[in-house]
Amino acid sequence: ATLLDALDIRSHGELKYLTDSLRRGGELTLSAIAEDLSFLPAMTGGVAIPTGTSLQGKALVEGPQMVADMILALPDTLTQQTDTVMTLGARYHLSNEAYQVQLDINELDVHQFLPQDSIYGITAWLKAEGEGFDFFSPRTRLEAQGHVGKVHYGSYQLNGYDLSAGLENHQLKASLLADNKTMNLRAHLDGHLKPN
Description:
The protein is mostly beta strands.
């Protein structure tokens, strides 16, 4: 589908036996390329999408397992090519609610999307895996780690942040470490999650 030379979105694929948990299967792909979206900031309060931005995605379904991968790329004005700035991979199992997520951000210039803000380049990663989404259930577990290698905000270069979090059998643990020119911080949280 094309929206008045502003956005080109293409998707194709096939899903079979959606109500059969064992035979369920299929594959879907998505390709979106921003063309002329110069009208967007006036409609969204300043949010923009640069011309040439592309989003590629693929999803697979096999029985109770689901897999999705996405790639965000921005045009490089010097080389006239696109550079991958963000990748997202996710896995999910419908039977036991087990999941894995990996997000990688590489030199994403947020200022191109929020030109009225003072945030520029970000380099970071986040990964998480666990099972269940009821955080008050004893069977729910979560392990997550993240690292912020670089954040350019105004005149500040905020580098070197490490985060981790875990939940198992109601026990919550989280930590934040920051070591850069702006701050030196070590914080740790231990908690017990129960409905009452």
